Amino acid sequence: MLMKSLNPSILSLLLLTGCASFAPGRTAASADVPKPGAVAAVPAEKLPHVELTADLFYGVVASEIAAQRGASASSALTYYDLAQKTRDPRMAQRAAEFGLFSGQLALATDALSLWIEIDPDNIPAREQLLITQLRAGRLAQSKPLAEELLRRDPGQAPLIFVQLARLTAYQQDKAGAYQLVRSLAQGFPDLPEAHFAIIAVAAEVDDTAAVSSEFDQLARLAPKWDLPVVWQADRLRRQDLGAAIDFLGRELARRPDAGLELKMAYPRLLTAAKRFPEARQGFEALLKTHPDNPDLLYATGLLAFQLDDLPQARKRLEAALAAGHPESNFIRFSLGQLAEETQDINAAAGWYQQVTSGDRYLPAQSRLAFFDAQAGRLDAALQRLDGLGGNDKEQVDLALLASELARNARQYERSYLILTSALKRFPQAPELLYARALVSDLRLNVGDAERDLRAVIKQKPDDAEALNALGYTLANRTTRYAEAHVLLDRALKLDPQNPVILDSMGWVLFKEGRSDSALGFLQRAYKAMPDAEIAAHLGEVLLKLGRQQEARALLEQAAKTASGDHELLNDTMHRLLPQ
User: Among 87, 151, 327, 404, which lies 20 to 30 A Cα-Cα from 1?
Assistant: First the structure.
């Protein structure tokens, strides 16, 4: 059967069917791609009557299907070939869209040029060609086109200059881009967008005087236009946070009618710079005029928390939650942390139970399991953790937490079995091996502890923590003091100020009978970290050196400040101090 000539309206229907099923996404590679149907329709009388051949039919259908499956590059080539054969502007438009979407700027340029050749009066096609040429860094070709567009349709000047500002970073010839934009802007002395374009290119060539001068002009011409200020603040933030803060502060001072988002950007920058009191003051000032704004309530609540103003933090975060802030689960988790800070465990648990999804769900469940274990409900705690965690890291972290809860409950065998089960799934996980070694030490199984720690050190030879753990285990549980000393010396060289390693070195020296040498290490360790275990070691050395009164004062003070019942400290005091 012979194919009939295809009416333009039928071809439009065929193209639109494909367009409806695939619209190029707004990605970095396609940020300037017009959506299908966005360009003004060509009058039917200007469209060619195209014979619906098999090649044409299957070319259109195959291209749309290929695009749906991620092969936009081949779709662009096919449509460009069809556009050349049919001289149909819609084919050229579609070729340009897919060319831009797939990052084929050369092909997109050819398709747009063909589109304009077929439909010379199509202004949007010319605008898109200018954008594409600028993206490709083709300054020489873009200048006459930009001049023509500005001459033919001055009403499009704002859009053209904004695009020039956006695309200056693509130009290899920064000086040429600067010259081009300044030349084009001469005809628009009162157009804010033209001044913005000059700012963008001046910044690329480090002409700070021009940038400052143009911002002066913008403050006069467009004091309510926030885009250039946001652009420059973000640019400076990536280079020098302090400079961004200073710039934005100056601009806001002369822009009292700036939008709320721009005003909020200033305390956000202060927060990024960890200038928390100033940031809080800035957000609080905005909250006075926008008392129900969820973002301001959220920001002031978090900053109050950061600055230990817990009552105000709670008030503001609860208000942000009531105002419908989208970070509801994060707010509930933060309120749980707040309640923990004030020792209100019941309130904390209530908030954690309300965290139902998102990246705070697992931490919330972990805290609830901790509360269960603290209350003596270890089975409930472990049951709560069972089945949680979606990826390998979460699974490992949960196993570590479960083993820690069992270890804290002094159920060492159970803790060991939890870690052993996890190691069947993650046999090379150093965190699990390290944790199981600590539990083995508590089970007085030095062989198992040494095996796991040596496996960690084999994977990570410069892991000061593992070297220290093995050295301390050998010093504390065996008489292999020389071997322990070598391991601890390696650990100390890797991390010379670590109080835990200093304590271990002091302890092995004491075991070697070198109490005078041990004393200095233990004193340094205890000064850096007044821990009960370090106090027990230091007290024992002091007693060995005959400094009984000093040892007693140290141990008694450590007992008063120790959290909970510390077995080693109590044993040292009962064993060495006369009652």
Answer: 87
Residue 248 near residue 266 (C-beta atoms within 8 A) = yes
Backbone angles phi, psi at 37, to 5 degrees: 90, -10
At 554, which helix (H) or strand (E)?
Answer: helix 548-561
Q: What is the mean pLDDT of the chain?
A: 85
Q: Is the CB of residue 520 less than 8 Å from the CB of residue 505?
A: no
Q: What are the Cα distances from residue 394, in Å, to 70, 218, 278, 426, 558?
A: 33, 51, 37, 12, 36
Q: Which of 256, 161, 257, 267 is nearest to 214 (CA)?
A: 161
Counting beta carbons within 10 angstroms of the beta carbon of residue 324, is it exposed (0 to 12), middle (13 to 18) or buried (19 or more)? exposed
Reported for 562-571, long-range contacts at CB under 8 A and 24+ positions apart, including other chains, are: 562/532, 566/532, 566/533, 566/536, 568/532, 568/533, 568/536, 569/532, 569/533, 569/535, 569/536, 571/536
Judge whether 65 and 47 are in contact, CB under 8 Å: no
- Count CB-CB contacts under 10 A for residue 410: 10
pTM score > 0.90 for this model? no
Give yes or no for a contact between 208 and 175, defined as CB atoms under 8 angstroms apart.
no
Alpha-carbon distance of 263 to 268, in angstroms, equals 9
Among candidate residues 222, 167, 173, 224, the one with its CA nearest the CA of residue 197: 167
- The DSSP symbol for 2 reads P
> Distance (Å, rounded) from C-alpha 429 to C-alpha 398?
13
Chain segment 455-468, per-residue pLDDT in tens:
999 999 999 999 99
Neighbours of 104 (CB within 10 A): 21
Residue for token pair 């004062």: 553
**Beta strands at 50-51 and 5-6: parallel, antiparallel or unpaired:** antiparallel
Which one-letter DSSP state was computed for residue 308? T
Single-letter amino acid code for the residue at 172: Q
Instruction: Find the distance separating the first CA and the last CA of the chain, reported in whole Å.
Output: 113
Listed residue (100, 176, 87) closest to 138, CA to CA: 176
Q: Which span out of 81-85, 118-122, 445-449 was modeled with the highest average pLDDT?
A: 445-449
How do residues 207-260 score in pLDDT, each as one tens digit?
Answer: 999 999 999 999 999 999 999 999 999 999 999 999 999 999 999 999 999 999
Query: 293 is written with which tokens?
Result: 């704004």
| pLDDT-derived band at 45, boundaries 50, 70, 90 | low
Structure tokens at 95: 């070729």
Q: What is the length of the chain?
A: 579
Q: Which helix (H) or strand (E) holds 6?
A: strand 5-6
Helix (H, G, I), strand (E, B) or coil at 29: helix
The Cα-based distances of 269 to 232, 257, 295, 320 in angstroms read 13, 20, 15, 21
Distance CA 418, CA 577 (A): 39
Q: What's the angle, vertex CA 326, arms to CA 322 and CA 327, rounded to 5?
A: 95
440-445 long-range CB contacts below 8 Å, 24 or more apart? 440/416, 441/473, 441/477, 442/407, 442/412, 443/412, 443/413, 443/416, 444/477
pLDDT value of position 577:
67
Number of other residues whose CB lies within 10 A of the CB of residue 383: 12
* Residue found by looking up tokens 């027990």 in the block: 536
More confident residue, 357 or 96: 357
Q: Which amino acid is at 234?
A: D
- Reported confidence tier of residue 106, pLDDT bands at 50, 70, 90: confident
CA 339 centroid distance within chain: 27
Cα distance between residue 447 and residue 433, in whole Å: 13
